[in-house]
Request: fold
Amino acid sequence: MENLSANVSERANLILSIADKLTGTYKPHEYGEVILPLTVIRRFDCVLADTKDAVLEKNSKVKAVAMKETFLQKASGYSFYNTSRFTFQKLLDDPDNIETLIRKLEEYKNSLIYEAVTGKMDVCQ
Reply:
């Protein structure tokens, strides 16, 4: 039971440290608009981590191909992929420069593509 309490405490401290970094850029009532989307994007980042390099390499080869989405989906192994050169780790390497981080995150999320059951759509727009 003691380990569980320590784990919960560590996670709470992590969340509070993230909220502290948001202070100044976002008002407290805006945190939810940031944290949930970032959580979803982070999950995509984790899922795609193993195929990131393959997708970037394939993207450089098929940029002008009409059906490049098919090639990129095959490279990622999923019906979605990310062609941004950034990963969450790269974005977090410069935590003191939050404005640059936000611009980089915009590029990152705009390149995250998802194919829904009804057709192709951009997850983040």
